[in-house]
Design brief:
Layout: E1 6-13, E2 16-25, H1 30-42, E3 47-51, E4 55-58, H2 60-75, E5 79-83, H3 87-96
Parallel strand pairs: 2-3, 2-4, 3-5
Antiparallel strand pairs: 1-2
Helix pairs in contact: 1-2
């Protein structure tokens, strides 16, 4: 039986773990990712850093695994952070609006507001009424009917 195209390396330091994933994260390998993150939680690890530097591919099943694990770890009082994700995963995280998974936010994004504080938004430019454009009628049928 061939080895899956994903390797998982785990390094623990007290209540913190660094998991390095190397290879491809897809439907075939995502069970390994889920099991690795779940094992950390069962072992009492509450701060999990996932180094994705050697990941060559990650599809939406990988993002789903990270979101699921983040929800479970957060419910247990911990945190999950992704470090150096591949560009495709950064794009998926951005589109899905789950930048909280990333160690550092991508450029141009504001961190979520603390507590119940409303988010600050960029000022909206003043509304200028649109002037109607007058277009002369054009005959659409032969014979000049308008």
């Amino acid at each position: 039986m061939p080895l899956p195209p994903l390797n998982v390396y785990r390094h623990d330091r007290k209540k913190r773990a660094l998991i390095t994933l190397a290879g491809e994260i897809d439907l075939e390998t995502v069970p390994l990712v889920r099991a690795s993150l779940e094992r950390c939680l069962r072992d009492g690890i509450r701060t999990i850093d996932v180094d994705l530097t050697p990941v060559t591919f990650c599809d939406c099943s990988g993002l789903n695994a990270f979101l699921h694990a983040s929800r479970r770890i957060t419910a247990a009082g911990g945190t999950l952070r992704l470090h150096r994700p591949p560009p495709t995963l950064v794009l998926m995280v951005d589109v899905a609006g789950c930048e909280f998974l990333l160690l550092g936010l991508p450029f141009g994004h504001l961190p979520p507001p603390p507590g119940n504080t409303p988010a600050t938004t960029a000022p909206v430019p003043p509304h200028r009424p649109v002037q109607p454009v007058r277009v002369p009628p054009v005959p659409v049928l032969s014979g000049g009917a308008v």
